[in-house]
Amino acid sequence: MSSVAFETQRAALADVVAIPVTPFAEDGSVARDTHRALLRRLLDGGITTLTPNGNTGEFYALTPEERRLVTELTIDEAGERAVVLVGVGHDVPTAVASARHARELGAGMVMVHQPVHPYVSQAGWVDYHRAIAEAVPELGVVPYIRNAQLTGARLAELADACPNVIGVKYAVPDAARFAAFARDAGLERFVWVAGLAEPYAPSYFSAGATGFTSGLVNVAPAVSLNMIEALRSGDYRAAMKVWEQIRRFEELRAANGSADNVTVVKEALASLGLCRREVRPPSRTLRDEQRAEVAAIAAGWSI
Fold first, then answer.
1. Sorted alphabetically, which keywords does the UniProt record give (predicted)?
2. Pairwise CA distance, residues 117 & 131, whole Å
3. Nearest by Cα to 246 from 205, 287, 202
4. Which DSSP state fits 5?
């Protein structure tokens, strides 16, 4: 399949790539109606790219059945209003089954989570992604790269074998490394998504990214859209004004090795009455004083 066939998917990556939360009910199950309501809020807010089963969605804390449910709810709710990029991962058979499930439901792309394994060779990284990409040649495939050792040449090798590898979610916190990696792999060959969200978006856009992921978007879609509009127009001063606006919120999420990354987003949503604050282990809820600070930030954005 030619790259022309993936024009819609490529355009969807060059945008705010929303990573929705997975809200839980009082009994601990996925809160389906709340999930749908949160997705509608994103869509109504102007978001057109959704990633079910991303890290902000607590991918690794969901059961296989819950991951399928989240995919189904998202694709159903999105309809024609958004392109859906389904997160897949774990062992190869599990990732392939998830990717095929996404294809059956009409998703346009899959995002392959970083392989969770203590021993990841670069050649093995290629093999892992190739097995998944070859199983769903009709879907756009987006590797989620968090491995600072991986070289751009390995990504190019993967795409030579699998032309449906069309974009990259790059999440190594090093703008210079990203700039080099993208050029080694092929700057124009892939859509580069800043995988560390708004805090890194200005520096990564300056080096060639054209989209960024966001968990904050769950709380304030307009804030994320303001940033990408500024970046698209090359107005870095305006983009940094948004950066300053979201700085404290993102610092709370990033503290202690991102221990509260999802927790802070859900706390903000809870303060607005949009979902319960509960997260699953190994995440945990915030202390009272942190809750108050998050609520104050969220209230400021909602005015």
1. Lyase
2. 16
3. 202
4. G
